[in-house]
Specification:
By secondary structure, this protein is α+β, with helices and mostly antiparallel strands. 50% of the residues lie in helices and 6% in strands. Strand 1 and strand 2 (71-72) form a beta hairpin. The protein is globular and about 70 Å long.
Length: 450
């Protein structure tokens, strides 16, 4: 059986009872975390600007926008809610990369099209499958550093496959249709890292475009439109031969299917910045605490990192929110000056704060070619009294090996969600998410998003 057929069988045959209890528990955390990121993201400039464009098109009002209540077409809803979920760099990571902001908006977008109510068990299962397929496609491209290092943004290039199978699963597509959806999704794949050089906002659109592409792929397949059945084969025009010609690992598509669940490797972000900055934020806090120093006691900070991380997070531009959230200098300075790197550390006023700008000027970046592309940076704090101490956090807070606590996750969700919806609605979303598998239909629970 070829790789595409094996993936299709996995998507069609997996049932809720096949999912380990630990996976179900972890999935519920990622669902509610994504909803929180999307709710606050709906208040962002980029989400509001895109909504202003699309809501004037007069699309059939079927699927709702999170935190707003207006309804639009399923495709538009997937696009706009995906943009919102990724807009403020608060969504999960470690999947396709940002799997939640792609898979979950696509699923909610097609709920109005489902012939029967979707239960909590069915919803959870589709999420798991979406995360799994999206990550497997990335690993088949050679992994995160290889694929993204080539200039592709994997959230979009690989996420579209996860969105297609998750939406297709909810829509009840058969095996031939799921295969077609995967094949069609391959032609919708795209997304470049060019935004990194000037802090532009195009990155924020990638999750939405992947969610939209997945919805369109699933709906196209449902309508009988066919897609290539050998998308991942080693031939001209194949996905891997085209996007990963020198790094492809096609067997990763099906390795340990149903045994190794890819959602279990995903991280929940405690900070409002690129995941590449998180270990440095943690290390800065640990060094300050270990040395018992106050903000004013620090002379300067050095960060030593891999060439790959420097390309991704080493830019000096911080004038825009998008640029600041990708800057490791800004992240370290925020932890140094403000004591945290949450969303409130990235406001326009904070980005202009003289104290923060001074701190950034005293943070130097050193590139060490011996550092692994997938490794974490080393932070060195130099005090005004001459003390010097270095530290590297190998597993950042939020990673599976160093997870945020339930209380930390709840605090994050409530603080973000209540910027768009009422506290009672946020509390009900949280409480019912914890027992999502008991819901006979997710519709009533999701009404709290508006």
């Amino acid at each position: 059986m070829d790789f595409q057929s094996q993936l299709v069988a996995f998507v069609c045959d997996t049932q809720f009872d096949d999912l380990p209890a630990s996976l179900v528990a972890r999935t519920k955390r990622h669902i509610i975390d994504t909803l929180g990121a999307g709710l606050v993201g709906a208040t962002s400039e980029v989400a509001k600007d895109m909504a202003a464009i699309l809501l004037t098109e007069g699309a059939a009002p079927m699927a709702a926008l999170w935190g707003r209540g207006e309804k639009t077409s399923p495709r538009n809803a997937a696009l706009l809610n995906g943009i919102a979920a990724h807009a403020l760099e608060l969504d999960d990571t470690g999947g396709c990369d940002h799997s939640g902001a792609v898979v979950i908006p696509a699923m909610l977008a097609v709920l109005p099209l489902c012939e029967k109510p979707v239960s909590g068990e069915e919803f959870i299962t589709a999420v798991v499958l979406g995360y799994d397929v999206a990550r497997r496609v990335l690993e088949a491209c050679g992994g995160y550093s290889a694929h993204n290092g080539a200039g592709w943004h994997s959230t979009s290039t690989c996420g579209v496959f996860g969105a297609a199978v998750a939406a297709g699963r909810l829509l009840g597509l058969n095996s031939a249709q799921i295969s077609a959806a995967l094949g069609i999704a391959g032609s919708f794949s795209g997304g470049l890292w060019a935004f990194i050089h000037d802090g532009s906002q195009s990155k924020k659109l990638h999750a939405g475009r992947a969610a939209e592409g997945g919805v369109l792929a699933a709906l196209s397949a449902q309508a009988g439109i066919t897609g290539p059945t050998g998308l991942f084969e080693d031939h001209w025009g194949g996905f891997l031969k085209t996007l990963a010609p020198t790094t492809a690992q096609p067997r990763a598509l099906v390795a340990d299917l149903g045994l190794v669940w890819k959602l279990m490797r995903c991280s929940i972000k405690p900070y409002a910045s690129c995941r590449g900055t998180h270990s440095a934020i943690d290390a800065t806090g640990i060094l300050l605490a270990h040395l018992g120093m106050k903000t004013e006691d620090v002379e300067r900070i050095e960060v030593t990192m891999s060439p790959f991380l420097q390309e991704m997070c080493g830019d000096e531009k911080i004038s825009s929110l998008a640029a600041a959230q990708m800057s490791i200098r800004y992240a370290v300075a925020a932890r140094w000056i403000y004591g945290h790197a949450g969303l409130d550390a990235y406001g326009e006023q904070q980005r202009r704060d003289p104290a923060l700008l001074d701190a950034i000027s005293r943070i130097s970046l050193n590139v060490d070619a011996s550092f692994s592309a997938d490794g974490e940076p080393e932070v060195t704090l130099i005090a005004k009294n001459g003390q010097r101490l270095s530290h590297c956090v190998d597993i950042a807070l939020g990673a599976p090996g160093n997870p945020v606590s339930d209380q930390q996750l709840q605090d994050k969700f409530i603080s973000l969600a209540t910027r768009a919806i009422s506290l009672p609605k946020a509390q009900e979303l949280w409480a019912r998410a914890l027992a999502l598998e008991t819901e006979s239909s997710v519709d009533e629970w999701l009404e709290n998003l508006f």
